[in-house]
Structures are given as structure tokens and as C-alpha cells.
Amino acid sequence: MTQTKIDGRAKTREIKRKANLNLLERLYLPEIFKGLSITFRQIFKPKFTFEYPDVKWQPPASFRGRPVLVVDDETGVERCVACGLCARVCPALAIEVVADETELDKERYPKKFEINMLRCIYCGLCEEVCPEEAIVMSKEYELVFTSREEAIFGKDKLLTPASKLKDRLEFLRKMR
Amino acid sequence: MESILIAILKAIIFILLFLTFSAVLTYVERRISAFIQDRLGPNRVGPFGLFQPIADVVKIIFKEEIIPANADRTLHTLAPIISLFVAYSVFAVLPIGEKLVIDGKEIKLVLADVNVGFLYILALSSLGVYGVTLSGWSSNNKYSLLGALRASAQMISYELSLGLSLVGVVLVSGSIQIDEIIRSQANVWNIFYQPVGFIIFLVSVFAETNRLPFDLPEAEPELVAGYHTEYSGMKFGAFYLAEYTNIITASLLVTAFFLGGWYFPFVDIYSGLNPNLSAILQVIVFFGKASLIIFLFMLVRWTLPRFRYDQLMRLGWQVLLPLALLNVLVTGLVKILL
Ligand code: SF4
Ligand code: SF4
Which domain holds residue A24? Predict the structure, then answer.
């Protein structure tokens, strides 16, 4: 049989099909018994189910949960310098940043930083573009809201200490 | 007067027994299906999810009932009733044990002790197709109708081999009374005399109960849900219940005709016992064996893919029917010669 791959190159693969089944095989019954025994053994195999609300899945560092703003542990101030790159790159137009001046070294800070979680598609582009490593994807995947207003996360919900995001930060450095 | 009272009491107990058994069966089937697919299945309601059937029943009773605008209302309502009625009538002649002795009175563990029980079962089980056909016809839905047509063709085809495979049993046991057939197997089960008949009967029973690999009347990938596509609420529940009751009856029949009913091969464990104790033991053994057959039903469901329609017909007419005829012939010859 010849199969054409998507890129146009032909690929030949042999499909083995026994034309002449012997009598035992054509009686079906022995084969059915083989099948039944496989099914039976399957009953005792370990199960894959997570009993979700009781047992929660711990995502790996590569997981892209909801984006959060990183707060430096030493200074207790968010790293964001309100450059607006994340808002610019966000394909879903989910981020709104309003900048203001500050006495701190970084000179600028976001007076208002909002992510509309109804718009966010968890693409991670904001994280990638940020020059300060100030916005990263967390491991949080349980997002529940009952109104559109509630779905807009302001700084109060976004600010997260760096110590809690260690996994992701290390992962980002490794992958850079 | 008293005998009528006993009959009514027996009927109620039988129906309750079968209702409970089918309720448990829905739970067990879901659990085992889940295990086979490496899942856990329903385990939330009560310990191990054992109360799931109760939750299901309560839910299904409170569901809205929808009758399609152009459906034939009378037949649409009648169809599930016929299905359920037939399913529950079949086990009326099925003995589930010998007899209880209470106050010196013998109470046989069978609802109607008729001497043509065998024919009664064959006749009624083919009546079941009316429920399916009418439901498909009255729903005014092409998928329902297709499912119903398939069901009637399938039932008629397999009815023949079903009946013929039992002729062998009747020849061996020398009776068409079901408890006589069971008693004749006290030493050697019929499956050893009639291995071919057993396989034909088993396959036909799968087809008669519309279970995989013969569930063409439902065939959810092709026909949405087949004949009960347009049913909801308790009417759907009635079809569901009828299906499970049919499975139970079918496995009890397989046990009664081929696997020695409540007997074990070569040993008679009931001889010295008090009749009441032995009756209870018999019921347990009988239902235990039937449960194994039901387990086989479930295993087969998750092992074999669904037959194509032409394959189904070919198997029925070109393989099973000639084989069944041959089986009758050989059994008859052996009976005469030996
Ligand atoms: S790209 Fe980074 S630094 Fe710039 S506004 Fe976004 S989060 Fe702040
Ligand atoms: S993850 Fe993507 S969609 Fe969500 S805020 Fe960041 S850039 Fe926008």
C-alpha cells in the first residue's frame, strides 16, 4: 500500500494481512477466547483516574497556567517596569497596563495591571516577551468566576512572590 | 384463597428480586466497563458508589418526558410498556429453585408451573421485538425506524437457531418442562452432551438481547441510539430496565438449559439437606452461575467490535442455522442408535 505524506513524499508501508487463515483461526472461537482473556486481564491493571477534587494534579514546570506578576522576595516590589510589551504582544488583547513613576530604582511601575481571564488564551507570549521576567505562567489551573467583572484580575490577584514560582523561573532560565 | 395469596406474594418477591438484580447489574456493568478501560467508574454515591443505581432511578423519574411532535402518541407510550411487560413475563415460568416447605406446605419456587415452559419462553421472547419495532415506528425518526427494522430482522433470524439449539437439549433431557430439564442434569450438564448447541444458543442469546457484538438496533455510532433515540425519562428507563431484565433472564436460561441449573457436576450437595436450606442454596448457586454468564456478556461487550449488518445476517442464516439443524440431526441419530 502506498501512502502519500502531507509533504508530498511517497512512503511505502507493508501491511501484513494473512489471506489464508487456518481452520482454527477461521472458527473464530479460539481467537475470541484470546481476546476475552486480554480483556479480563485488563480489569486488574492499575487505573489512571485522578479522583479530582480529592487528588489534585501537580503540573510540571512546563505547564502554562494563569499568568501572574512576580514580586521580588527581597524588596517586596513587583518586577514589572510597565513597559507595556506584554500588552502589545498579547494576541488576545487581554492585558491592560497603566504606567506611573516611582522613587525606586526601576523608575516606572504599573499603576494598574489587569488581565482579562476570559480573553487570555494561555499562550505564554507575555511571559516570553517580558524584558524583566516580571510576568510568568503559574501552575494554577482552577479558574472560577461567576460574572464578567470577576474575570478581570487586577494586581491584587496577580502579584505572587517569586519563591512560589521558583519552578517556573528555573525552567525559563534553563530553556532560554 | 390461600393459594392465590401465595401466588401474589411470590410474584411480588420475584419482581422485587429481578428489579434489585438489574439495579445492581447497572452498577456492576458500569464498574467493570470502567475497570476494563483503566478507569474507576461510579464510586461517589455511598460506599464504593453502591448507591449509584438509587441515584440513577431518582434522577430518571424526575426527568422531563419528551414526545416528538409528529410521533404516534399511543404507540410511543405503549412500546416501552410492551418491552417491559414481555421482559417480566418471561421469567414467570423460570424455576429458580426446587421448593420451600412452610407449615408442611410445599411452595414451588416458580411463578407458573406450566408443563410447556420451554415453548412459552420461546414464544414470549420473540414478542419482545414488538416493543422495539413499535418504538421505532412511532417515533417518526429515521434512525429509530432503521434501528427497529434491524431489530426485527435480527430477532427473526436468530430466533430460529435459538429454538433449534434447544431442540438438542430437549432430546437429551427428554422433557420440555424447565425444572425437569434442570433435574435431568443433576449428574452431567447438558453442555457436555451439547457443546455445539451451547455455543449456538449463547450466540443467539447475545443477538436476542441486542448486546454487543450484535447491538445493531442501537449502534450508537450509526443510529444515534437506534430505536430509543426519541425516548426520555422513565420511558427510556423502561427500555433500559427491559434490556437488563432480558440479560438476566437470558443468563438464567443458559444456566438452566446447559449449565445444570443449581446442580454441580458429579456431586449432589442437596441430598441430605433440609428442603428449605437446600432451596436457598439452590437459588444462590443458580444466580451465581447466571452472574458468571452475565460477566461473560460484559467481557464480550468490551472485546468484540460490532458486526456489520450483512455479516450478522450471514452468520445467522449461513452458519448458525445449518449448524443447529446438523446438531439436531446428530443428536437424534445418537439418541436412536444408543
Ligand atoms: S512586559 Fe513585563 S515589564 Fe513590561 S509591562 Fe509586561 S510585565 Fe511589566
Ligand atoms: S498568556 Fe497569552 S493571552 Fe494570556 S495574557 Fe499572556 S499573552 Fe495574553
Answer: 2-42
Q: Are residues A91 and A171 in the same domain?
A: yes
Mean pLDDT across the stretch B305-316? 84
Mean pLDDT of chain A: 84
Residue A53 domain-assigned (yes or no):
no
CB B116 within 8 A of CB B176: yes
Plot region of A137 (φ>0 → left; ψ -120 to 50 → alpha; else → beta):
beta
Q: Is A90 in the pocket of ligand 1 (CB under 6 A)?
A: no
Residues of B in contact with A41 (CB under 8 A): none
A76 and A162 co-located in one domain: yes
Cβ proximity of A67 and A138 under 8 Å = yes
The alpha carbon of B268 is separated from its chain's Cα centroid by a whole number of angstroms, namely 27
Q: How many distinct structural domains can be found in chain A? A: 2
The answer to the question of whether A18 is labelled as a binding residue is no
Q: Which whole number is the average pLDDT over B37-43?
A: 85
Residue of chain A with shortest Cα separation from B196 = A29
Give me ligand 1 centre to Cα A126, in Å.
8
Task: Specify which of A61-65, B182-186, B333-337 reaches the highest per-range mean pLDDT.
Answer: A61-65
Please tell me the residue having the least CA distance from ligand 1 atom 3. A80
The pLDDT of residue A98: 92
> What is chain B's mean pLDDT, rounded?
83
Tell me: the pLDDT tens digits for A72-86? 888 888 888 989 899
DSSP character at residue B109: S
Nearest to A45 among B38, B43, B303 (CB): B38
Residue A89, domain member (yes or no)? yes
Ligand 1 neighbour A86 (Cβ under 6 A) = yes
Considering only CB atoms, A39 lies closest to which of B40, B199, B302, namely B302
Is the distance from CB of B314 to CB of A28 less than 8 angstroms? no
Are A156 and A74 members of one domain?
A: yes
Looking at residue B134, its amino acid is L
Confidence category of residue A125, pLDDT binned at 50, 70, 90: very high
Task: Report pTM.
Answer: 0.77
Asked if B311 reaches chain A (Cβ–Cβ under 8 Å), the answer is no
Does residue A152 fall inside a structural domain? Answer: yes
CA of A82 to the centre of ligand 1 (A): 5
Report the SS3 class of residue A153.
Answer: strand
Could you give the ipTM of this predicted complex? 0.73
Q: Is A157 annotated as a binding residue?
A: no
